[in-house]
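Re: your question about Outer membrane protein OmpA-like transmembrane domain-containing protein

S., sorry for the slow reply, the queue was backed up all week. Below is exactly what I fed in.
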Amino acid sequence: MISKYLPTFILLSLFSSTVNADFYIGAGLGRTEFEREGETATQTFNYDDNKLSGSLFVGYHNKSYPEWMRFEGGLKYHGSWDVSKHDHNFNDELSSVTLTWVPTFISTSQLNLVGKIGSFWWNSNHSGLTKFSDLQGGSGQKMYAGIALEVIVTKSLGFRIGAEEFDLDYVKMQSVELEVHYTF
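Result:
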């Protein structure tokens, strides 16, 4: 599968060396905590809500405007949450495609504080007999936001630790991830 996209990455690398821009790829691994919105004490369910999450992304960084011209697109696996109480048993697995603006708020030669403001197109893979919402098992589009601390190790290699919040109508997801990215 990677060999299918390798020519594209090579072209992006050549293009980025001829214009004042960088292209980069990256991956992240972390945890997502799921929070059921509008839940009262009488509606408390036993659910496993702290799950492994991950992401893959590609980015574009225009060096003429380094603080404001940075965008990313990616795939994100948020994880799944399991609910079990009496006759309510189900599993809801969430993933999304993201398009993100990544502005830099504070920058030094090796340390950046960056924001993440974007849109995510989510998909719910629901299994079980009951649902909290008709949206479970469906898909949709929402906005999300986050913040990250980025460490630049070399001209090509960087790391970020960040937090993001994704808010659906029936569940809120808060992710913390460690990401690594390679700049061409």
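The CA atoms of residues 165 and 174 lie 5 Å apart. The chain has a mean pLDDT of 82.

Happy to talk it through on Thursday.
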